[in-house]
Write a structure and sequence with these properties.
heterodimer; A: 420 residues; alpha+beta; 2 domains; six-stranded mixed beta barrel; 15 helices; 51% helix; 19% strand; B: 251 residues; outer membrane lipoprotein receptor (LolB), chain A; 5 helices; 46% strand; globular
Chain lengths: 420, 251
């Protein structure tokens, strides 16, 4: 960079008015830091949203009978009426290297009643040991414990317990449609209350051991509605689902293996929309910086009109004057980049590894598109975006200097030196 | 004698036009059909056969009704569910479950749910008697259909009525006031289900359709048929019969 004399002059010129240089560089540096932080935070939120949506209750992959969605009929069990060898299917799913956990589930709609209060409920039959590895909503119960198989025990969401005015150890009446058409009903003991943070879930879900729900619904143990699967990373769920589709043992009627991006396309669209905003953020932040830098550079060149006039009088070409001014801008850009990176990267490392908890700012949980978000300043790394930001910073500085450079190149030597 | 004749003629002049009016006033006809089937109070025994894609079952039930606001249905068979009972009082429904000896009130959010696994909804049970309260009735056809003289009515929901149907069509046989079918249309105007009435027989001293069959359009092959074996009208029951305490009485 310093090989050309004009560039060297540009570089040295940075020291001529250090205050101005520092302020200009800080403007660009803070613009760079703001971009990196803002996008990092947005991506942190997205990551949190996807992780929450795919680990709170739903898995990242779901395996159903091909007819199960969207009606979720209780008769559309995996393997149809004959059912399936659930253990063998689970073993086959577990065998995939990307799979962290897999859990069978049975669902039923019905009523839960306590005293005079009755709520519409969605019953979920689970294998508690497997479910605890897969999902988070049962990890820490607000009260009580998980239900034990064969004891007519269940846990419900906090909101449902409130609506039913039910407490742990209370007796609940459960009514559901039996697979034989009967009105299945039985008494259960409420042994625990969970809080997922998602109001809809907490108001409607009642969870019991899978065998108990099958018995209530007159379904044999071989008939389940779903196997939920967690993978090591939500973003490999799609490829894992494709692989499982090929490797799972053949089941008749056909099963479907779907990843969260198919089950929740709105969230995928949301992430894509947020990604497309990155460039708008760059445009706005550096757009503001552009005018500040242009103003400072224009002032700097105006102050040095006599210097440019002397250079031109001694035989310098307008082009070399442009080079001087532009290389000065380039030098400012590089200094800004160093300052900006120095400012933001320690913060990024901190916020990425130990995001400050911001829940003190909010009274309640934040939910977005069916996902529970913890209010924190978690940021995600995105090196390609940082590179784009760096290029944008340099381009901004150079564009800001174009007009001042052009003006400087056209300085009339004789008039300027004669004081006109 | 003359006075009597004059009296008869005068009476005839007054009565005949009012009869004609009564016969073509849709509300009056609907009311009459309803009164025929219900009486002030009634008791009956019926079987309900439910056929779905996945299972078939038959239940025997005993039914009581008082006016349009109260009814009680108690299952006698199958044995596993005998004693299960439903009480409808005004717009509310309670179910008594003998297995757990508990009564639960159906929440308003579940009124659209199936009643006892049939193709009738809980809402049908409480709203069926209020058709003329919730709908504007319009006579849209008066003439022969397949050799039978019928009236056809179109029931359109009143603006403030909380109902699920876009409109309902209702056909009534003119000579005996027997309903022939009711067609329920959704809000898009598509036929959703059809109720047909058949086997007009004398039960409890009245001609009634002994068989009522509900068929959903979106599930061909599925149906719920209710067949009355016994029916008696104006039985000696009062409002106290339709109490939660009586609901829980297993008989």
């Amino acid at each position: 960079m310093l090989e050309s004399p004009w560039l060297r002059i540009g570089w040295r010129n940075l020291g001529r008015n250090r205050k101005r240089t520092t302020l200009t560089a800080l403007g660009l540096a803070i613009g760079f830091a703001a971009n990196v932080l803002l996008v990092g935070w947005v991506e942190g939120l997205q990551a949190e949203m996807v992780e929450s949506a795919t680990s709170l209750v739903n898995g990242q992959i779901e395996i159903h009978d091909a007819e199960f969605r969207p009606d979720r009929s209780m008769f559309d069990t995996i393997g149809g009426r004959a059912g399936v060898d659930v253990d063998a299917l689970l073993r086959a799913v577990d065998a995939d290297t990307a799979v962290v956990a897999a859990a069978p589930r049975v669902y039923a709609g019905g009523l839960v009643s306590s005293g005079e209060a009755t709520s519409a409920g969605m019953f979920m039959g689970i294998d508690p040991a497997r479910e605890l590895v897969l999902t988070r909503f049962l990890d820490q119960l607000v009260e009580g414990r998980l239900p034990v198989s064969g004891q007519n025990e269940l846990v419900v969401g906090e909101e449902m317990a409130r609506q039913l005015s039910a407490a742990v150890d209370d007796e609940l009446v459960v009514v559901a449609s039996g697979a034989d058409g009967s009105m299945a009903n039985d008494l259960y003991r409420l042994v625990g209350i969970f809080r997922s943070g998602l109001t809809e879930l907490d108001a409607t879900f009642a969870v019991m051991p899978i065998g108990d729900l099958q018995a209530l619904m007159v379904l044999p143990p071989s008939r389940i509605h779903e196997i939920a699967v967690a993978t090591t990373d939500p973003w490999i769920a799609e490829t894992t689902a494709l692989r499982l589709r090929d490797t799972l043992p053949g089941v008749e009627p056909a099963i479907e293996v779907v990843s969260w991006d198919v089950l929740n396309p709105a969230m995928v669209d949301y992430v894509a929309l947020a990604d497309s905003m990155h460039f708008i953020i760059i445009f706005i932040v550096f757009g503001i910086a552009l005018f500040g830098v242009a103003n400072a550079t224009l002032m700097a060149t105006y102050e040095r009109r006599r210097e440019f006039a002397v250079m031109l009088a001694l035989g310098a070409t307008p082009r070399s004057i442009w080079s001087t001014v532009l290389s000065e801008a380039l030098a400012v850009a590089l200094v800004s980049l160093v300052i900006g990176a120095g400012l933001i990267f320690p913060v990024m490392v901190w916020f990425h590894n130990a995001p400050p908890d911001m829940s003190w700012l909010l009274d309640s949980d934040v939910t977005l598109m069916g996902a529970l978000l913890s209010p924190s300043l978690r940021v995600e790394y995105n090196p390609s975006f940082w590179l784009t930001c760096a290029v944008a910073l340099i381009v901004t500085a150079v564009i800001a200097a174009l007009y001042p450079a052009f003006r400087a190149g056209r300085t009339p030597p004789a008039d300027t030196l004669s004081g006109l | 004698m003359n006075k009597r004749l004059v009296g008869m003629v005068v009476a005839g002049c007054v009565v005949v036009p009012s009869l004609v009016t009564a016969q073509t006033d849709p509300l009056e006809i609907m009311n009459r059909v309803d009164r025929l089937l219900r009486g002030d109070s009634s008791r009956g025994v019926a079987t309900m056969e439910v056929v779905t894609e996945n299972w078939e079952r038959e239940m025997t039930m005993e039914l009581w009704s008082l006016g349009t606001d109260y009814s009680l249905v108690r299952l006698r068979a199958p044995r596993k569910e005998a004693g299960t009972a439903t009480l409808m009082a005004d717009d509310d429904i309670w179910n008594y479950l003998p297995k757990v000896d508990r009564t639960i009130k159906i929440p308003s959010s579940m009124m659209g749910g199936a009643w006892m696994g049939s193709h009738f909804t809980n809402d049908d049970l409480v709203k069926e008697s209020q058709l003329i309260d919730d709908y504007e009735v319009e006579l849209v056809f008066d003439g022969d259909r397949d050799g039978v003289t019928v009236w056809e009515f179109r029931l359109t929901p009143k603006p403030d009525a909380a109902v699920v149907w876009g409109h309902i069509e209702y056909q009534v046989q003119q000579d005996n006031y027997m309903p022939l079918w009711t067609r329920f249309y959704d809000e898009d105007g598509d036929l959703s289900r059809t109720m047909t009435y058949s086997d007009f027989s004398e039960l409890g001293g009245r001609l009634v359709p002994a068989v009522m069959e509900m068929q959903p359009v979106d599930k061909p092959g599925e149906r719920t048929a209710i067949t009355y074996q016994e029916l008696e009208f104006d039985v000696d029951i009062d409002q106290s019969f339709f109490s939660l305490r009586n609901l829980q009485r297993q008989r």
